[in-house]
Structure formats: C-alpha cells, structure tokens
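User: I'll paste a sequence; please echo it back and then give the predicted structure.

Assistant: Echoing your sequence first, then the prediction.
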Amino acid sequence: MALGRVGGLRLATAERRQVEWQMACLDELVAYDHRVRHVWAYVEGLDLSELYGEIGSKIGEPGRPAIDPALLVALWLYATLEDVGSARHLARLCERDVTYRWILGGVSVGHKTLSDFRVAAGSVLDKLLSGSVAAMISTGVVDLGCVAVDSVRVRASAGAGSFRRKHRLAELNELATAKVAALRAELDSDPAASDRRGRARRQQAAEDRQRRVEQAQQALAEIEAGHAVAAKKQRRKKPANRHEPRASTSDPQARIIRMPDGGLRPGFNIQVKTEVQRGLIVGLSVGNNASDRGRLGPAVAEIAGRYDQRPKQLLADSGYDSKADIEAVYRPENGSVEVFCPLPCDKQGNPRPPRPKDGPGALAWYRRMMIDEGAAMYHRRFATERPHADMRNRGLIRVMVRGIDKVKAVVLWHVHAYNFLTISRLLRPV
C-alpha cells in the first residue's frame, strides 16, 4: 500500500489475483462507426489478386496456412493512419490494442512478417494507386486536366559517417575481398561442423559488406558522371562542386541533398503528383536527385503511362523552372502541356525578360505568367500542399529502410492513407 494510508478508510483497491471469467466478442468491443471498420471496408474493395497469387499454401496440402494478405494490408494502412511506422511497435499493438486485434480476428503475426510485407507490397500498392485513380477518372470524380507536381525530401537511413571518398572505398573493397577469401579458405579446410557454421555466418557477413562497398563504388562512378555532364552543360572545365564526391557504404542509393531546413543530409527526393481539383495523389516517384530540375518531363510521362492521358496544365514551384524541361513538355503535336511556374527574377525581384534564343514553349510560358490569369492559376498549387503536410504529420521525415524501391514502398503506404482520407471525405454526406 502507498505511504500515508491510515486505518478506517473505505477504499476500492485492486485485487489482481482474483480468478474470473471474461466473455467478450471482438466485434462488439469496437464501435460501429470506428475508423478501423472503414479501413477494412476500403481494403475489401481492393483488387489483391496479385498478392493472393503468390500464396503457395493450398487446401489439402501439408504446411501452415498463410496469413490473408487483406489482413496485412489493413494492418499497415490503419497503422499508417495512426502514425505507427515500426514493425515491432505494430506487432506489440496487435497483441494489446483492441482495434488491431479486431483486424486480425485471432490471427497471430510477428514483426518480421510485418516488416517483410511492408516493403514487398510496393509494386502492388503502385498498381492499386493507378487502378483506384483510373476508376475515379472513368466516373468523372477526378479530372487530370490540371496536375501539380512537387517534391518532398526525406532523410535516409544511412548516416553521414557512412559516406566515403574514392580512395577510401578502394581500400575498403580490398580489405573486404581479402576477408572473404580468407574466410572461404578457412571454411573449406576446417572439418569441424560447429565451427563451420560460425565461419559460414561470418563469411556471409563479409560478402554482404563487400557487396555494399562495390555498390558504393558504382554509385560514386554515377555521381562523378553526373557532375561531368552538368559541367559540360554549363561549359565548365571542371565540375562546380569543389568537394570530392562521396558514396554511402550502408545505402549506396542515398545522396547528400538539401533538406527543408537548409541542412545537407543523406536523403531521397520524392516527387508527388496531385490532382488539383480534389487533392488526390495521382502519381509518385522516388529518386536521389538533389534538384527538381529535369522532373517535369518524367512527371508528364508518368501520368501518361498510368492513365493513358497527358495533363493539359502542370503547376510547379520555382525549382522546376528549367527552360529545357518546359520545352520538352511543349509539344503541340502530342497535346502541349501548359506549365505554370514562377518566372526567374533578378536581384531586385523583377522577372527577367526572355532571351532571343528561347523556344516557343519558353516564350508561351513567359506570356502566361505575365498576366493575372496565369498567376491565379499558379496559386491553385498551394492547395496541394496538404498531402505533404499530411505525410509529414504521420512521420514521413526519415525512412529506416535502404534502397529506392523500399523507400518508395514505405511512401506508398502514406499515399494510400492520404487518398483513403480524401476519398472518405468526398463520399461523406453533406
């Protein structure tokens, strides 16, 4: 008992050793208007045939039954809505939280299964994004005539200390190669089974280290080639970046990019395409480019590839103001795309006049942005900042997976969570 308790008091205290029977139904423990029920209804309407096709467990054959993919999709979608981004945390919630237990309905799942499914379902989520938006386009709910493109920078799992220069990567590769060769020779010459298993694990770790160092060397070669191309375009004898390029040994696909707070950190550049009228996310791509220049053409190509139509108007901020990009999407024979992007300004803040060598696409861009209608159309882009804020508020600040494909899979869960909320709001009765 707590200190200060005196006799004669009438208190209701805890009795934790009392044996009792509890009869409860999971379905009755969750309110009928709870969000988790809407999530499950949404998942039931998704086409998960690709996930079901990968299951090898059949009726009448030996082996454990596989977990229904719909349960895992509902778990991660609901977890993303609840700001849960850790597989271990989610596994603990599946044991003690009634809403997650309601989704599983008595099925047990471990954190390894949850973690593997989260990144393995990336290709399916990408197809579901295209399918769901295409269905709304066919019904007239979504119109791709006006699309906004913007970037979201996220921190990578790799730390700044994992980035190495060219000479250091060569040294690490030599050490890793020698280590693998020594372990392989030792493993072949020692007949002791127990020691062989331990050496096999050490050899596997050394081979993994060697593989990541080789990938870092390849990434470094790509970075150097990119710097050389940029220097050639700018007519420089040497790259403008005076620092020797570096690559990460823990996540070779990560790059040092400028974050929203102005700092330079390892990260990825996420390109989000949003339909302006409804605010739905209609496209997503993940890269490691430090700048948004050169992204307008791929954005139009992605929309055309997903939905077999090009947007008529494209809204972007000042980071996309490359004249070469604007000329690339200005093709009257294919249906030119009108770009609404701020004009470059001088030091006094006045728009710079067009140059004589500018093409027809750049000249049309100048004419659009110099009138009030063009400025008003550009301001519609600010309504699409909501998806970025929603994903940030749900924890999309740093991704703890490595590689562009896995990062895209994690971001796609946030995209589907945001689109789920948007669709629920559109279907809500007025």
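The two ends are 55 Å apart (CA to CA). Residues 193-233 form the longest helix (41 residues).
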